[in-house]
């Protein structure tokens, strides 16, 4: 029997005998497992054939640059896949010497596990790479031990986990080499960011292990999915959640007292806009104002969004008069003192929006009646909102009122035709608020209950 018919028989044996629709659940599971065994068995056959083809130098005869390129073209697969098959074949097949004798495979235990269909070719690739990464002396004296350890683990864990075990072994046997690698990784660190033509910022980075783990540790809680209060799943994509988490991270950094100062000021977002435009910039009228300008990137931003940004009492908008000279619109009028923020947190939590369960980062102190239209900076005109709900309130027609000292949210007709008011603030269970409490740099001791 030729190797090829062997593989075909194995594949045929994996097929459920009857139509998949009529087979039982147990048969289905067994069928999926059997198919995987058949794929692995067929792969072992292919490795054998690839090793023999390389021994014969077929790739050169066919005009290919290398064995890997030849296999890639022949099978129409990715370069990485072709490399895995060729490299594994070299290490698990018996080798013929120049004198026609047969030498045993370089990695016999891996070959054995492969032939039992107990591991996949990807597992074998991890073992090959793991052995190759060993330092010179270990490669001479400890290959057998390392290989059998990895081959045993390979039977129990997926390739990605196996790679971590291989790395651990390497770190134990070759601390100098591992240290050199880490230094090289640190040298290769890079982060680039640029403002694209459309005004969005594009970030691309490769961080060393240490920085990467810090980044992941900070990002994970801030970008975790948050189901809605009614159990509906978080509608944001993973990319949107990461972007929101990163935005929250930036807010936290800006609000910490340790950020370096630029010109004696914390590097808060600086926006310039003409006073009249800011006043006119109500999102729902056709009479839009001229846009504002983001100082750091020199890009435009709509008056509607400047109103939202400037609404937060912590942000310092640079409002200009008609001659583009800074206008003092009264910082004291819009800046909530620490005791007011503390009282808002006490009354509203991180976000007062009914049922809010989003990662808040730094909350925004929203003026119900905008300060630029004469709204006051006091408890009765303010409400704490997370970044997401601050946008919702500014961009859609939610109305907010204070009833009996607590915020009440009146949905727009598009959300609820009867516009039934919904209680907000701490009246609502907001499970996540406790998790993030420590992240908020604002003083937390309430000056007095409202
Ligand atoms: Zn606001
Ligand atoms: Zn919210």
Q: SSE layout and pairings?
A:
Layout: H1 3-14, H2 25-56, H3 58-61, H4 67-75, H5 79-92, E1 95-96, E2 102-103, H6 108-115, H7 121-132, H8 136-141, H9 143-154, H10 159-173, H11 175-187, E3 190-195, E4 201-206, H12 209-223, H13 238-255, E5 271-274, H14 275-280, E6 292-294, E7 299-301, H15 303-311, E8 318-320, H16 331-334, H17 338-348, E9 364-367, E10 382-385, H18 387-395, E11 399-403, E12 406-410, E13 422-423, H19 433-436
Parallel strand pairs: 5-8
Antiparallel strand pairs: 1-2, 3-4, 5-6, 6-7, 9-10, 11-12, 12-13
One zinc ion is lined by residues 351, 353, 356, 358, 385-386, 388-389.
Key words describing this protein structure:
single chain; 450 residues; alpha+beta; four-stranded mixed sheet; three-stranded antiparallel sheet; 13 strands; disordered C terminus; binds zinc ion
Quick summary:
Among the domains are: 3-186, no CATH class; 268-329, no CATH class. It is built from 19 helices and 13 strands.
Describe the overall structure.
The chain is an alpha+beta fold and 450 residues long. Among the domains are: 184 residues, no CATH class; 62 residues, no CATH class. Helices cover 47% and strands 11% of the residues. The strands form five sheets. Strands 7-6-5-8 form a four-stranded mixed sheet. A three-stranded antiparallel sheet has the order 11-12-13, with no helix packed on it. A hairpin with a 5-residue loop joins β1 and β2. α4 crosses α5. The longest helix has 32 residues. The N and C termini lie far apart (87 Å). The chain binds zinc ion (2 copies). The site of one zinc ion has 6 residues, from α15, β9 and α18.
């Amino acid at each position: 029997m030729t190797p090829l018919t062997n593989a075909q028989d194995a594949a045929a044996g994996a097929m459920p005998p009857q139509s998949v629709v009529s087979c039982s659940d147990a048969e289905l599971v067994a069928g999926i497992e059997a198919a995987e065994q058949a794929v692995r068995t067929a792969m072992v056959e292919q490795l054998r054939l690839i090793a023999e083809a390389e021994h014969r130098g077929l790739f050169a005869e066919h005009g290919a640059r290398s064995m890997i390129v030849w296999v890639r073209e022949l099978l129409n697969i990715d370069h990485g896949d072709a490399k895995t098959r060729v490299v594994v074949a070299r290490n698990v097949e018996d080798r013929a010497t120049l004198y026609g004798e047969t030498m045993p495979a370089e990695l016999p235990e891996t070959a054995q596990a492969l032939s039992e269909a107990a591991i996949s070719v990807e597992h074998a690739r991890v073992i090959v790479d793991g052995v190759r990464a060993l330092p010179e002396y270990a490669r001479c004296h400890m290959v057998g031990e390392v290989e059998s350890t990895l081959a045993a683990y390979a039977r129990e864990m997926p390739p990605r986990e196996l790679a971590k075990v291989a790395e651990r072994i390497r770190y134990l046997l070759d601390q100098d080499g591992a240290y050199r690698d880490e230094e090289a990784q640190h040298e290769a660190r890079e982060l680039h960011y640029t403002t694209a033509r459309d005004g969005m910022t594009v970030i691309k980075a490769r961080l060393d292990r240490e920085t990467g783990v810090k980044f992941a540790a900070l990002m994970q809680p801030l970008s975790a999915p948050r189901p809605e209060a009614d159990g509906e799943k978080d509608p944001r994509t993973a990319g949107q959640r990461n972007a929101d988490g990163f935005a929250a991270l930036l807010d936290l950094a800006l609000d910490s007292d340790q950020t370096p100062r630029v010109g004696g000021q914390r590097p808060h977002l600086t926006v310039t806009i003409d006073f009249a435009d800011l006043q006119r910039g109500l999102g729902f009228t056709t009479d839009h104002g001229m846009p504002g300008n983001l100082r750091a990137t020199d890009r435009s931003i709509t008056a509607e969004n400047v109103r939202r940004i400037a609404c937060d009492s912590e942000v310092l908008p640079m409002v200009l008069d008609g001659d583009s000279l800074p206008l003092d619109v009264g910082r004291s009028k819009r800046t909530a003192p620490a005791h007011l923020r503390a009282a808002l947190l006490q009354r509203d939590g991180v976000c007062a929006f009914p049922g809010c369960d989003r990662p808040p980062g730094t909350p925004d102190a929203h003026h119900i009646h905008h300060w630029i239209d004469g709204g006051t900076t006091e408890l009765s005109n303010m409400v704490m909102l997370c970044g997401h709900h601050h946008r919702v309130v500014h961009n859609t027609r939610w109305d907010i009122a204070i009833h009996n000292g607590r915020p009440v949210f009146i949905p727009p007709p598009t959300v609820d035709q009867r516009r039934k008011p919904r209680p907000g603030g701490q009246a609502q269970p907001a499970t996540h608020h406790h998790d993030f409490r420590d992240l908020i740099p604002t003083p937390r001791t309430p000056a007095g209950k409202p």
